[in-house]
Amino acid sequence: MIDTHCHLIDPQFIKDLPVVLKRAQAAGIRKIVNAGYDTDTSSRTIVMNDEYPWLLPAVGIHPNEAAEQSIKEMDKIEAMLTSEKIVAIGETGLDYYRDFMPREAQQELFRQHIALARKACLPLLIHTRNSIEDAIRILKAEGCYHGVFHCYSGSHDQAERIIGMGFYVSFAGVLTYSKRAREIIQTVPRDRLLLETDAPFLAPIGHRGQRNEPSYIMETLKCAANMLDIRPERLEEILDANAMRLFSLD
Ligand SMILES: [Zn+2]
């Protein structure tokens, strides 16, 4: 199983990372996309990959980080792309829910991530909250159709449109308790579907309010298999093939 979106660089994992990774391997997780959310955590995803080659680095600046400052730091993210280990650009996107940052600055920061992804031929890890329409508009304007809408929270109609553009749609542990997510996953073509934990955030049912971790993805897998009326082992094969294709893994 591949956890396609996780933040093992988060301070919440500093104390017991080796134990968390052992539990992940024991649960059957073979690869984890480890996404940075600012320049410091992004560079740490690359360092972590030296010690744990199965933790795949993704570099980017989250839209909730100070956008104006972040725009000035994009050259640091670009400099990281000399590492051939990087599998994606992100976490990036637009967040109008928390709305910490002016929307125009978020959009400019998102455009810069898109430009980098195109230049490096890497997929985008796209975060949206109440902002899918603007994300679609900007991606179309920039001519970028390569990536995943992570922790999908939009409508059925929006899912259809982003899939039509060529994107993947990923569900996190929210699937285990959200009626809406359960309805939408059933409409996503299986060759465009991914699962993730977004750990340490968004723990699945049974762990809500606690720190999330990669091993819990197996609970989301079981839930998704149930929703889609397919054996978990078979769904895992399909999802892993999708992740390998999107992130160009061997
Ligand atoms: Zn995330």
Structure description:
The protein has ten helices and eight strands. The protein is of the alpha/beta class and 250 residues long. It has a single domain, classed as TIM Barrel (Alpha-Beta Barrel), CATH 3.20.20. The protein has an eight-stranded parallel sheet with strand order 1-2-3-4-5-6-7-8, sandwiched between helices. The two termini are 14 Å apart. It is globular. Zinc ion (ZN) binds next to loops.
Helix content: 40-55%
User: Pairing-aware structural class of the strands and helices?
Assistant: alpha/beta
Topology as H/E string? EHEHEHHEHEHEHEHEHH
The 3D shape can be described as: globular
Helical run tally? 10
At the third CATH level, what is the topology name?
Answer: TIM Barrel
**What is the correct CATH architecture?**
Alpha-Beta Barrel
